Amino acid sequence: MEQGQAEKILEMGIQITSERNYDELLAKIIDCAMETTNCDGGTLYLYEQEQLQFCIMKTKSLGINQKGKATKSYPPVPMNEKNVCAYAALHRKLLNIEDAYNCQEFDFSGPREYDKLTGYRTKSMMVFPLVNHEEALVGVVQLINALDGQGEVVPFKAEYEKVLQSLGSQAAVAVSNMRFVQEIEQLMISITQVFTDAIDTRIPYNFYHSRNVYLYVQLLVDYINEQHEKGLGEKYFEPSVKSELLMAALMHDIGKLVIPNEVIDKTTRLGNKLPLVLEHFDHLSALYHIDFLEGRITKDEWITIKNELLDARVRVEELNRKPKLSQEDVEYVENLACKNYTNTSGTQIGFLSLYEAECLEVQTGNLTRAERDIIRSHVKYTEKYLKKMNFGMRYPHLIQWAGAHHEMLDGSGYPRGLRGDEIPYEARILTIIDVFEALTSSDRPYKKAMEESKALEVLNGMAEEGKLDKEILRLFKEALEQKEDKLQLFHQINE
């Protein structure tokens, strides 16, 4: 092999193997082939579902540069040996044709029709397959009309054949590897979605929370990128960063798996303990009745304590569900908790246990301080489990972003009380969307579902207090205008 050929092969190999974006990789394959041979046109087909599917089509003289969706209108090429690309694919063979119109071996009626419509003249042609290291067919490249120094159409030089064969092998391996990575990533995302669905299903009021956070993050990131492409914003999410952030959105609540159901599902102050407390009051009433019957207390004492326990029953049921307690309510609970029944052996039985009293003294919400700490611990467990999953170099920031989705800019968040620039931009996105989704989702134990407008007012207030990023919130509001179409698409994908 000549030194010039070796250098070309090496250069093309570097360009192709260094590309990390799938679409850009495909574009580089056709560009390398066209630049190497100095030809006017080129088409890249990918072998899918036992057919050659149009992927990229370029013709310099006609100003054609079509790829992706633009090529979907072209019908796939059947694996018929009379078709030059199909033949090259089936026989794993490079073909060098001087003039397509004078070639009787293959059916060029398609190019002739195309030429009639466009005024083009398809003449010289070089076609070579993309075959990977496992001898699997990946695709075919078709090059049209090699040009000399004066821009005249000439046959493709034989010296290009080895170079293009090498390009075909390198390109096929690169495409196969990237497809494999994509398949693994998609599998990981699918497993993660199933996993998060299990978490959300475990918590009825939390159903679809993780997937909805994923959707809103996707909505916002796409909007930010669109603004950047329009020259209206500096921030841009590279595909790898977007993928990592979406994974963090899916996995941010994985730590809730270890939170006890009696805490996470607690809909009232006493939760599932209320029947036991009421039964305890009935039991105490029975004990006092026995004391009366056996002469240890008077009738008046018995009537007084019986009424007190009946009143306690009513008051506790009321306080158990009351949205907010007054100071008078708290004092009532404290007084009730101080009361004891002393049995014949001298053992004292409290009207309320310490835990029950603590629950009933919660002024707002349903959780005690200890229970709130348990709920908050889900973030640390999220970090712990994500570390065990060992995402490696693929998602180097995933744990940090997911672990900071409850941090606030003013330092009032948890688990670390981070402030300002200590909180990554991506984590700030998760925080805003996590709060928004929680506010607007179906009714939760501690609140009614909010309208979007009301939820945005709450977020505005938090931003004014210095808790949330104002600029990200502004972008999120703007992105929400696109929500309906995105939601429909998302649910179609995930049905």
CATH class term of the largest domain: Mainly Alpha
Rg over alpha carbons:
35 Å
| CATH homology superfamily name of the largest domain | Hypothetical protein af1432
The number of domains: 3
User: Helical stretch count?
Assistant: 19
Biggest sheet overview: 7 strands, antiparallel
Uncertain segments: 491-495
Proportion of strand residues: 5-15%
Mean pLDDT: 88
Write down the CATH topology of the largest domain. Answer: Hypothetical protein af1432
Order of helices and strands: HHEEEHEHEEEHHHHHHHEEHHHHHHHH
- Total strands: 9
| Helix and strand composition category | alpha+beta
The percent range for helix content is 40-55%
Principal-axes shape call: elongated
CATH architecture of the largest domain: Orthogonal Bundle
State the end-to-end distance.
55 Å
